[in-house]
Every structure is written in C-alpha cells, then in structure tokens.
C-alpha cells in the first residue's frame, strides 16, 4: 500500500550516541547494535476508529527510535502492517452497515494524514494484510511442514507444545497467560484444541466472511501470523526491533516470536521487543471497544500538530499515562516559548544542549529529559539573550532531527 510522505531529517554536527533501549524479552535496557541498515517492524493499526492518542503515542515512540539511529548514520528499514481484515474490523463494519473494505480504506487514509501531520517518519513498507494473504498462507504451510500445526474443523492451529521458547518474550506464567489470551482475541475454550493456548493460524471460510483461496483451503489469516509473515518477507529473521504497545506483549508478540522461530530455526526472531505504555482517558485504557477515544484528527482541528506531538513527548514512552486537556495547553505554551527563543537573532551556545539531547534520547528515549534540556536553553535565551548567531538554527535542527518537532 501507499505509505505516507517523509519530511527531510536534518543532519547534525558532532558525534551521535548509540541507542540503548528497553527489551521486554531481556527485561532490561540494552545497547542496540544495528548494521548499516537498522531493521524495525512495528505493528500497525486495525483500521477502525483511527487515530487515537494511544496509537499516536506508540508510533511516536518508534519514530524516535528511527531518529536516534538516523543520527547515528544508519539507514532504517521500517516495515508496518495494517490489519485490514480481522474479526473486530468485520464486526464494526457489520454494526455500522458499511463494507469492511471501505471502512478499512477510509481509516487507513485518516491514519496516514494524522501520521504525516505529527511528522512521524513513514515505513518503507506499509503492508495491508489483504495484499499478502498468499504469503501468509505460504508461511502457515511452511509451519505445517515443520509439524507444529494441527487442524480443528479446517482451522489451522499452532501447537504451543511445539514452541520451546514460548513465554520468553513476555516472561508470563501460564496462569498469567490464560486470561490475557482470552481477552485479546484468543479462543481458549474452543473444543477440539489440544491446549487452550494453541493459537489460530488460518481461519477456514465461514458464510458471510471474506475469504481467499489457498493451499490450506479457502479462508483468511489468523492475527499473529500476519505480522510474522510480513516481517520475514520484508526484513528477514533476526531483525533489530519488533514494536507495539504493551497490550501486544502477550499473546501477539509471544506467538509471533514462536512462529518465526519455528519457520527459520533462528532465535530470537527479533533482537529487541519494545513496547510503549498505554494511554488512558478517565482512568481507562483508550480503546476502540470502550469508546473513550481522543482522536488526533479532532485535536488537529484548532491545534498545532506540533503541540500534539509535544503532549506525547512529555511522557516517557514506557509509562502508562492519562490524557487531560491541560496537557495540551502546556504543550502549546512550550511550543510558543521554543518558537520565540529560536526566532531571536542569536542565543546562548547550543552545542552542550545538542550533546544533552542526544544523551537523553539515546538513554531509552528519555524524551521528557530532552524537553527539559530544551526548556532550559529557551528560558536562558529569552531571559539573557546570547551571542551565538548559529545557536537558534542549531536548536531548530536538533528539535527537528531528534524530536521531530518543527519550530
Ligand atoms: N493491528 C494490531 C497490531 S498487528 C493492533 O493492535 N491494532 S490496534 O489498532 O489495536 O493498535 C495499533 C497500535 O496501537 C498497537 O501497537 C497497539 O499496541 C497500540 N495501542 C492501542 N491502544 C493503545 C493505547 N490506548 N495506548 C497506547 N498504545 C495503544
Ligand atoms: Zn502485529
């Protein structure tokens, strides 16, 4: 599918700092060590009710990963999917009496517009699952040939008994897994399964549901395997970062990792599993099913998208937080202050600021720390002026390149 447009990322003087990032599977911050081309897969939206602040928060986190790598001189090969056929999308289409394809297309287009406005760098490959059903079916066949699958009434399941690394991504016990599996799209109670945690790879055709012909019989992909297939086809195994929100740790990334392992024999499937915290409104996680959504497109009407970006940057990507309207006001005030400071003809020296912002961002994406450093420089510029005529342009460039904020 069409991705969205990239803004130019200015290159910065001096030395970059290599990115240290939290890895959910290792349960610690580790140094990323990408090759000349860093490879990243981030789970995309299921296109109904896009784009809420929670989505934006997640894509911003991985945008920051790209920016630190780019500053380090790496190219970034970034792949993202769109789950443009799945139960929740079909249910929403049914409830609202619209075609599921039209609903998906409309929401994906809104998502692209929101991402572009927020200056989120686009994926190189933006892949709708409906575009790659053959490749997903081929991966399911490959897994079947390895002997790790079985069928229940023509539906194909992955057998968790044949997943020796299952549990290593999330670190969850079986007791923790079981309820989450049911809440997040799994079918623990289905009769005929060998283990409640066995997960669906291929859903055989049902009356009234979309389906595609395949060597497995007509049907459609299960959820987890779509991301494994797309990541393998575009990035290959052993890529640098697999990302999403913390709600994807289990079962989505856990199951995907075992699929990748079974298909390739390689472990880990991704070197880092990195997850952004959940954004809430009124005390509850923002989610389509609860309907407590704050839409980026609504906020954009009347507010500068850079202020929306600053709301997100003000929270560390790994914390869970709740949105309140005063955060938007604070972000707008910050944006105005920064813009006034860089509009001056000269300012205090900004090389120390650049080093500090680089260090903060390389330290597991400490965006709040980076904002505080820019705040301090801007306050000094506005209070005392400064004699460096190059400083305002350098601050503009560093805010653009490392934080994605256009001043
Ligand atoms: N299509 C699947 C991934 S393959 C999916 O989870 N779609 S989604 O539309 O539900 O979510 C898209 C991304 O936004 C996921 O990475 C998810 O973890 C993240 N996300 C969803 N809700 C929130 C929230 N309230 N706060 C933060 N991130 C969220
Ligand atoms: Zn995914």
Give an account of the 3D structure.
- The strands form four sheets. Strands 5-4-3-10-11 form a five-stranded parallel β-sheet, sandwiched between helices. A four-stranded antiparallel β-sheet has the order 6-7-8-9. The protein has a three-stranded mixed β-sheet with strand order 13-12-14, covered by helices on one side.
- With 407 residues, the protein is of the alpha/beta class.
- It is 43% helix and 16% strand.
- The model has no long low-confidence stretch (mean pLDDT 97).
- The relative contact order is 0.16.
- It is elongated.
- Helix 4 crosses helix 6, helix 6 packs across helix 7 and helix 11 packs parallel to helix 13.
- Zinc ion binds next to loops.
What is the oligomer described by this structure? single chain
Label the structural class: alpha/beta
Structure ligands = 5'-O-(N-(L-cysteinyl)-sulfamoyl)adenosine, zinc ion
Number of separate helices: 13
Give the % helix.
40-55%
Largest sheet: 5 strands, parallel
Shape annotation: elongated
Determine the N-to-C terminus distance: 31 Å
Rounded average pLDDT: 97
Rg (C-alpha, Å): 22 Å
User: What's the order of the H and E elements?
Assistant: EEEHEHHEHEEHEEHEHEEEHHEHHHH
């Amino acid at each position: 599918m069409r991705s969205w447009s990239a803004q130019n990322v200015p290159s910065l003087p001096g030395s970059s700092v290599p990115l240290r990032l939290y890895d959910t599977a290792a349960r610690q911050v580790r140094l990323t060590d990408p090759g000349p081309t860093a490879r990243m897969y981030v789970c995309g939206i299921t296109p109904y009710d896009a784009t809420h602040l929670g989505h934006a928060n997640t894509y911003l986190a991985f945008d920051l990963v790209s920016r630190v790598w780019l500053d380090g001189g790496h190219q970034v090969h970034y792949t993202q999917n769109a789950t443009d056929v799945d139960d929740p999308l079909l249910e929403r289409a049914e409830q609202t009496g619209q075609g599921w394809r039209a609903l998906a297309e409309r929401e994906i287009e809104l998502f692209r517009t929101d991402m572009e406005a927020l200056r989120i760098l686009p994926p190189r490959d933006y892949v709708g699952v409906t575009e790659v059903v053959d490749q997903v079916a081929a991966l399911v066949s490959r897994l079947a040939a390895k002997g790790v699958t079985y069928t229940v009434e023509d539906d194909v399941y992955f057998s968790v008994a044949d997943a020796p690394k299952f549990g290593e991504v999330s670190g969850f016990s079986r007791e923790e897994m079981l309820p989450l599996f049911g809440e997040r799209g799994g079918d623990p109670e289905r009769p005929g399964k060998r283990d409640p945690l066995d997960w669906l790879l291929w859903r055989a055709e049902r009356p009234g549901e979309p389906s595609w012909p395949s060597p497995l019989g007509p049907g459609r992909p299960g959820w987890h395997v779509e991301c494994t297939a797309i990541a393998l086809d575009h990035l290959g195994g052993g890529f640098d970062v697999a990302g999403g929100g913390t709600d994807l740790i289990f079962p989505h990334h856990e199951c995907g990792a075992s699929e990748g392992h079974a298909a390739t024999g390689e472990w880990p499937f991704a070197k880092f599993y990195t997850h952004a915290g959940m954004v809430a409104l009124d005390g509850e996680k923002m989610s389509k099913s609860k309907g407590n959504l704050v839409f980026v497109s609504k906020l954009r009407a009347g507010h500068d998208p850079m202020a929306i970006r600053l709301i997100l940057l003000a929270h560390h990507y790994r914390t869970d937080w709740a949105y309140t309207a005063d955060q938007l006001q604070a972000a707008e005030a910050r944006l105005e202050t920064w813009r006034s400071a860089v509009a001056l003809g000269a300012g205090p020296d900004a090389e120390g600021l650049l080093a500090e912002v680089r260090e903060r961002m390389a330290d597991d994406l400490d965006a709040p720390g980076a904002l505080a450093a820019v705040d301090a420089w801007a306050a000094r510029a506005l209070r005392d002026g400064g004699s460096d005529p190059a400083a305002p342009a350098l601050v503009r460039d560093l805010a653009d390149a490392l934080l994605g904020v256009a001043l």
